[in-house]
Design brief:
Layout: H1 3-8, H2 13-45, H3 51-78, H4 88-107, H5 111-132, H6 135-139, H7 145-172, H8 176-197, H9 212-225, H10 227-247, H11 250-257, H12 263-292, H13 294-313, H14 318-345, H15 353-385, H16 390-414
Helix pairs in contact: 2-3, 2-5, 2-7, 2-8, 3-5, 3-15, 4-5, 4-8, 5-15, 7-8, 7-12, 7-14, 9-10, 10-13, 10-14, 10-15, 10-16, 11-12, 12-13, 12-14, 13-14, 13-16, 15-16
């Protein structure tokens, strides 16, 4: 099928659903592993005095590998010349590489073996994830990218909820291998569905293969010539720092700040409410991003995040925490649709969409790491000054990050052609220096 015919078909809901299926499998896997499997298995393999550090090490190595592997795999897929498409072979190959490592996670008798399995899993998963992020730029016309991104965001959120829920139910019955088998089944089904239902256009004509140094200099020149993309990534980084400042410390706030009983399950309720509202708002947000512009919705998301942070600062009960955090849920739904579409619009070279969309994960993964460190330090410092008050310091940091993200968006807008964000963004490009 030609690229023109694909673009003509790219407005249907069925089309958006088909290209989003792979995201369900990826998010099902990481939702199940990060939220349920790792916190269950790691304490069984290490002493209680180091279990937090052990889980943190798994998360850190995952972030590091994602930052390195996703852009590299995306760049390789940009230059791939397979007849069946340049993205799907990487997606299927990455999933197949994940399967043995998922099984090894379930049977590992030692922490070091579990750690090695997670390293292998991260390499396989991100080898699939990076190329997959080039699918929307490849197949969806600019005026429909908001809706496509809304479906991507919906698939991501639903997969995370289902993965955590299914894995949690099976682990509660002591069925570790069954939980891992469910992850393998859903991940494999999503890869197979993508292979069958996603049709890629013929690859563009091959480009000369420069040396690594030449390629790096070329891409840096492109970023200097199109600064809006880099500023959007900084704004994205700050938004995810705000999001993770809440996610990572809400349990401590409930248990030690408010003295709530059963803070683990109540944390699940809070995060579940956030994700459910994000799910409900992501699809209409995708439509609104195509109709009213991307940056307006991203700015609204940052404002809702800041408002949620201010409200949480004054929360006095579990019910208030659920209600105030839900404000962020609506913002997250707006953000997942509009920010992704904005990033695609501003990619400096769509022929290298896999590389540049892989770089967006630097903001996602980096936001998690930086928020955990900085908000955690603020929590400890303020607790030393006023015991118990430090648990609200994370929310103060959360608000600061969202407001800084909003400031980054103002710079992005200044780098665009006037009124160019309806429906798609157009950068005010400058010749490379």
């Amino acid at each position: 099928m030609s690229a023109n015919r694909l673009f003509q078909a790219s407005r249907s809901r069925w089309f958006f659903l088909r290209i989003s299926l792979f995201w369900v499998g990826l998010s099902f896997m990481w939702g199940g592993l990060n939220i349920q499997v790792f916190p269950t298995l790691v304490p069984q393999l290490v002493g209680p005095e180091v279990q937090g550090t052990a889980i943190g090490a798994l998360v850190f190595v995952g972030l590091a590998i994602a930052i390195l592997v996703q852009p590299l795999a995306g760049a390789l897929s940009d230059r791939a010349r397979f007849r069946i498409g340049r993205r799907r072979p990487f997606m299927l190959g990455g999933v197949l590489a994940c399967v043995p490592f998922l099984i090894l996670i379930g049977v590992s008798p030692f922490y070091w073996l579990l750690f090695a399995a997670v390293v292998g899993l991260q390499i396989g998963a991100n080898s699939a994830h990076g190329p997959y992020q080039g699918v929307i730029p490849d197949l969806v016309e600019p005026s429909a990218r908001g809706r496509a991104s809304g479906f991507f965001g919906l698939a991501n959120l639903i997969g995370t909820l289902l993965g955590a829920g299914v894995a949690g139910m099976l682990l509660a019955q002591g069925q570790v291998l069954a939980a891992l088998a469910a992850i393998v089944a859903v991940l494999g089904a999503s890869a197979l569905a993508s292979w069958v239902f996603v049709r890629e256009p013929p690859p563009p004509p091959p480009q000369p293969m420069p040396g690594l140094r030449v390629e790096v200099r070329r891409r840096l020149a492109e970023l200097r010539a199109n600064p809006a993309f880099a500023w959007l990534m900084l704004s994205r980084l700050l938004f995810f720092m705000g999001l993770q400042a809440m996610d990572n410390f809400i349990q401590l706030f409930l248990g030690r700040g408010l003295g709530e009983a059963d803070p683990q399950n109540k944390t699940t309720v809070v995060l579940g409410a956030v994700l459910m509202l994000a799910v409900l708002s992501s699809l209409p947000a995708g439509w609104a991003a195509d109709r009213f512009g991307r940056l307006r919705l991203v700015a609204a998301a940052a404002l809702l995040g800041a408002a949620s942070a201010v409200l949480l600062l004054f929360a006095q009960s579990f019910v208030q925490v659920v209600l105030f955090a839900s404000v962020l849920g609506v913002g997250l739904g707006l953000f997942t649709a509009a920010d992704w579409a904005a990033a695609i619009d501003l990619v400096p070279d769509l022929r290298a969409a896999g590389l540049y969309m892989g770089l967006t994960n630097v903001a996602t993964a980096g936001g998690d790491a930086l928020a955990t460190l900085s908000a955690g330090v603020a929590l400890d410092v303020v607790n030393r000054i006023e015991p118990g008050l430090g648990y609200r310091a994370a929310f103060a940091m959360m608000g600061v990050y969202f407001l800084l993200s909003l400031g980054g968006l103002a710079v992005v807008r200044s780098r665009l052609q006037p009124k160019a964000d309806t429906p798609a963004l157009t950068p005010d490009s400058r010749p490379p220096r």
